[in-house]
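new request in #modeling-help
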Amino acid sequence: MTGEPEPSPRGAESPESAAARFTEEFLPNLPALLAVAARLVGTRAEAEDLVQDTLLKAFRSRKQYRTGTNPRAWLMAILRNTFLNGYRRRSLERRVFEGPDAEALAPGWVGASSLRAIRDPHSGALHSMLEAPLLAAIDELPPEFKMTVQLADIEELSYREIAESMACPIGTVMSRLHRGRRWLRARLLQEAEALGLVDEPAKKPAPSAGTPPPVELSRYRGRKGAL
Amino acid sequence: MSCERLGSLWETFLDGELPSPQVLELQAHLDGCADCSESLALSGAIRRTARQVVYDDAPLNEELSARIEAALLREAREEREELERASRRRWLARAPQVGGLGAALAMAAALLFWLQSEGTRGAQEGSESDELAQSGVHDDREARASRMLGPQELLDLFIDYHTAPPMPEVTEPKLVPELERDVGVRVPLPSLAAYGAEWQGGSLVHVPRTKPAAYLRYRTRDAHTVTVYVYNASRIPLHASLRQRMFRSEPVYERSWRGYSIAAQLRQGVGYAVATDLDEARSAELVNAITRSVVQH
């Protein structure tokens, strides 16, 4: 740099060293960004593009990052905006939850022994036959629910951080988590029954109470418009 | 507490967002209710499995990391070229009026640049800042702040990493030495089994303006998280943010901060620090156990 006119203001670092620092600080979040992006868009290639766009945008607006806050939450907010502004696909918009927050899925509706049957007692994870159905069920969630559940269950962000990432109130985060998880759970139990993992019949007719059926977005909009 | 009421709380509990009085109430109920305990275990299982299947479905590959790093560098280069163009425009616009002043400014800029590149080493060296102030160029505090973290910031940073852990880069003990190349000091994997804590994974954490620190995460059987840092103590003066006391006739540095405690000890230029949600005394005991085990090996 010697001999060149100093291009940047006094004390500011050069863009190149900023890029190196950004890489060090934010790129460790790449796997998490990719995991979230892969659920939001249809193909691997699109997911990679979404992540790259997200990181470039983050780099351009690096001065807005508040030191001491969770970098992952900040990146997720940018990822979400990038997704909404161009990656959102019609196919994923199809469904949305509706209906009142019906009766909570009472824990007693399937007996303890059935619930035990769908877990692997050693690993504390689900029965391996339920792995693929779980991923499929996650994919069926509408994007905002999916991302909220993912940030909470997989990335373990706090409600406050999720609310910031999703640009919504904490109450909305909690409601989305509640409904999204209840739905995932109901789907898994259905699947477990279909696979014969659960032989005991449900004590309560659960899915109708527990599963708000996803509806077409156009119908939902129509309803909203009528209000 | 009824099962019905519990049904609306257990997710909040698993999210770690339930206020403690309700946690107690919920635990009391769980002890006596097999259905609810199973239900809670199922929620945990769903999370664990979701994490695994989602990550397995989106594996990271080297090309993507490389591509993104290259894109960031390209972006930086463009930004820099734009800055240079803008600076030339300003310079050209000003040049006819300023005449001799331009040369003076250039000299001042050169002096400042020289001082910046020379001055990296010392927040403790006061003479330089005096010189700068006298030379009338600038107060360099700002420039210095961009280079080194103050004691308070360093303390905050280490607590931040404890509260918001990075993704583990290594989860196999034999890969821990791989961290050494970046950290620049030997990185052992201390056993905290005697304290009921099990190692979960390790990674590097960024410390501005110097090499990263190694980050080793442990979890105790009663669900406390213990973070162990190993770093070059001459570059990362964390102990300067802490209070010194003697522990088993050795100096240990400790501090409670933001509801956590952190304790550090130095061995041959290597810093070992422990951050926990336990009290200072426990953190100090843990860090001492680590430094003693390191010396033995």
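bot summary: Chain A has twelve helices and two strands.
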